[in-house]
Design a protein that fits this description.
The complex is a heterodimer.
Chain A (H helix, E strand, L loop, with lengths): L19 H6 L4 H6 L5 H11 L11 H6 L13 E6 L9 H7 L1 H15 L3 E6 L4 H16 L15 E6 L9 H8 L23 E5 H13 L1 H7 L7 E7 L6 E6 L4 H8 L9 E5 L19 H6 L8 E6 L4 H15 L5 H4 L1 H13 L6 H14 L8 H15 L1 H8 L4 H4 L4
Chain B lengths: L14 H11 L9 H12 L4 H10 L4 H8 L13 E6 L2 H5 L2 H12 L12 E6 L11 E3 L2 E3 L7 H4 L7
Parallel strand pairs in B: 1-2
Antiparallel strand pairs in B: 1-3, 3-4
Helix pairs in contact in B: 1-2, 2-3, 3-4
Classes of the chains: A alpha/beta, B alpha+beta.
The complex binds flavin mononucleotide and iron/sulfur cluster (SF4).
Pfam families (chain A): Complex1_51K (PF01512), NADH_4Fe-4S (PF10589), SLBB (PF10531)
Catalytic activity (chain A): a quinone + NADH + 5 H(+)(in) = a quinol + NAD(+) + 4 H(+)(out)
InterPro entries (chain A): NADH-UbQ_OxRdtase_51kDa_CS, NADH-UbQ_OxRdtase_suF, Nuo51_FMN-bd, Nuo51_FMN-bd_sf, Nuop51_4Fe4S-bd, Nuop51_4Fe4S-bd_sf, Soluble_ligand-bd
Chain lengths: 432, 167
């Protein structure tokens, strides 16, 4: 059992799922046994806070702090509280939660039980995207196996704590991953995001205190409770604690997803794990963590992949799964694909996003197809300013969409100019 | 409707559908909260969700048909028109685009004679685009029914969709 790869210790080369027997044989459900009925919820929360665990869903918000806003004990009005696992993974270029769900479903369930115990929530949901049929089936099996062992259900392991976990398979749409839209969807409505405040921690599902966390975040929780905050902090190479599921897709030799110490340098992930660029291709830029993060370029390769460092470089670590732009792929086409994605996935609630994103896509399409004019660059810059400003839109989808666009205009202006002049070397050279 | 249905509350939903919807209702505070689950249950049994089904589900969940239709049409995997026996979900998000999903789309169109949003005339397949399928290391990918196909080459489209030829 390797301690420095807690999240993937049960992941096999053939990616076959780990069942209850194999999970327990490898030390599984020890975190549950250490926590439920043994430690107080307040003690668990203290450990979580000390650990510096930050949410792995994209924003990197400190998990312990987020949980501390949930009213506890007498401070909570009578009624249920809810824990929701966000397994909606649809961010373009993100493929880490699928691996955790399909290879080790019990790990998520154990993490959720310890998390729900800490929050004293008696009902939890896994909101899983419709297309993850296999993962949903494995999770149902895992939940049933837990009921047999009394790891779920009434009075877990003889304690006075009870928990049910329900699975909600979604019906599509990227916006469901935004946590307040997810709550709307779980209530059976259109997945429109909600105004904050009130924050879900106080008024979420059915108006009750609710915590939404990413799959990878929750998979860490019981390991931290079992092994302690100091152990977790010691896993990271930089200030940010723990390990991280990093991924690389695009034209590299070995695209894939690996659990590595938090803060592993970009170059190491790209060259040692992904095997470097595919033959005949070189690196032009990369999105560090999914489709709504700003481009970084060659000069950033020696940066540590963590929230702080990538943030300071003008981007975001996001989901930690990089998308590589190679020298034979047109940056304009690349960004247009992303903007079209976000335009299609807009929930339609607010105007800058609903009408602005299709406009951006149209301008990019004009540029790509030789109909561009010089003033189009000003139009795009204005769109970036208005659509990208936090506060101009109801949720973060639209500002996120502007991140790859604004940074492509900054780092690859020549690609736009060449297109406007009708001579893009990528598009005439048989590439995209 | 052929039989006399005045005694039945919801004439167009089957016993089995009602049983599954009731199981969902059991753990939510109000009936309309299971709208999406109910739409999925009916779609699973009938392939798609007709106007009749919308009315029947809405009345069973104490909501208006318009409200339910507003929900149904929001979600791209609730089908308000008939679809083929299998739905092809072709990922056209960024990692698959880099690896040539446009070529796959062309190939599928050649093979089946359908564009995005269309169903083959033999009713075997409906072709739809889908958001990033979370398998970017195996790009390009697509789903056919519930099955994920990874590292799909243009040359393997014929094998994957074997048999069906159009026009
Ligand atoms: C448009 C949009 C889509 C999102 N999609 C996801 C998603 O699929 N999975 C996820 O965990 N978080 C997603 N998020 C982030 C969630 O809103 C939320 O921050 C996250 O689930 C919190 O979990 P964490 O604190 O564990 O990171 C999305 C955010 C936005 C704005
Ligand atoms: S920014 Fe877009 S996705 Fe978010 S609420 Fe507005 S329209 Fe909906």
């Amino acid at each position: 059992m390797s301690l420095d790869r807690p999240l993937t210790r049960n992941v096999r080369a053939d990616r076959s799922p780990t069942d209850m027997a194999a999970y327990e044989a490898n030390g599984g459900y020890q975190g549950l046994k250490a926590a439920v009925g043994k430690l107080s919820p307040a003690d668990c929360l203290e450990i979580l806070k000390d650990s510096n665990l930050r949410g792995r869903g994209g924003a990197g918000f400190p998990t312990g702090m987020k949980w501390s806003f949930v009213p506890m004990g007498d401070k909570c009005s009578p009624g249920d509280k809810y824990l929701i696992c966000n397994a909606d993974e649809m961010e373009p270029g993100t493929f880490k939660d699928r691996l955790l769900l399909e290879c080790d479903p019990h790990q998520l369930i154990e993490g959720m039980i310890v998390a729900a115990y800490t929050l004293q929530a008696n009902v939890a949901y896994i909101f899983i995207r419709a297309e993850y049929f296999k993962a949903a089936a494995l999770l149902r099996e895992a939940i049933a196996a837990c009921h047999q062992k009394n790891y779920l259900g009434n009075n877990i392991l003889g304690s006075d704590y009870s928990l049910e976990i329900h699975i909600h398979a979604s019906a599509g749409r990227y916006i469901c991953g935004e946590e307040t839209a997810l709550i709307s969807s779980l209530e059976g409505k259109r997945a429109n995001p909600r105004a904050k405040p009130p924050f879900p921690q106080v008024s979420g599902l059915w108006g009750r205190p609710t915590i939404v966390n990413n799959v990878e975040t929750l998979c860490n929780v019981h390991h931290i409770i079992e092994r302690g905050a100091d152990w977790f902090k010691s896993l990271g190479l930089t200030e940010d604690a723990g390990t991280k599921m990093y991924g690389v897709s695009g034209r590299v030799k070995r695209p894939g997803c690996w659990e590595l110490p938090m803060g592993t340098p970009v170059r190491e992930i790209l060259e040692e794990y992904a095997g470097g660029m595919a033959d005949g291709y070189s690196l032009k830029g990369f999105l560090p963590g999914g489709g709504s993060t700003d481009f970084l370029v060659g000069e950033h390769l020696d940066l540590a992949m963590d929230y702080e460092t990538i943030g300071k470089a003008g981007s975001r670590m996001g989901t930690g799964t990089m998308i590589i732009l190679d020298d034979k792929t047109c940056p304009v086409g690349f960004v247009k694909n992303l903007i079209e994605f976000f335009a299609r996935e807009s929930c339609g609630f607010c105007t800058p996003c609903r009408d602005g994103l299709p406009w951006s896509a149209q301008v990019l399409d004009d540029i790509q197809h030789g109909r561009g004019r010089d003033e189009d660059m000003d139009t795009l810059a204005r769109q970036v300013k208005f659509i990208g400003a936090i506060g101009n839109t109801h949720c973060a989808l639209a500002p996120g969409a502007m991140e790859p666009l604004q940074s492509a205009m900054k780092y690859f202006p020549e690609a736009f100019e060449q297109h406007i002049q009708g001579s893009c070397r990528h598009c005439s050279g048989g590439g995209h | 409707m052929t039989e006399t249905t005045s005694m039945q509350l919801v004439p167009t939903l089957s016993e089995e559908e009602l049983r599954l919807i009731d199981a969902e209702i059991a753990h939510v505070p109000y009936r309309s909260a299971v709208a999406i689950d109910a739409l999925k249950i009916v779609q699973q049994h009938r392939g798609w969700v007709s106007d009749e089904s919308i009315k029947a589900i809405a009345s069973y969940l104490d909501m208006s048909a318009d409200e339910l239709d507003g929900i149904a049409t929001f979600y791209n995997l609730i089908f308000r028109r008939p679809v083929g026996d299998k739905v092809i979900l072709l990922c056209n998000s960024i990692s698959c685009w880099i690896k040539g999903c446009d070529g796959l789309q062309q190939k599928i169109t050649e093979q089946l004679g359908v564009q995005f949003g269309e169903t083959t005339s033999d009713n075997r397949y409906t072709l739809l685009p889908v958001t990033c399928l979370g398998a970017c290391d195996k790009a390009p990918v697509m789903m056919v029914g519930e099955e994920l196909h990874e590292d799909v080459a243009e040359s393997s489209i014929v094998r994957i969709l074997g048999g069906s030829t159009e026009p």
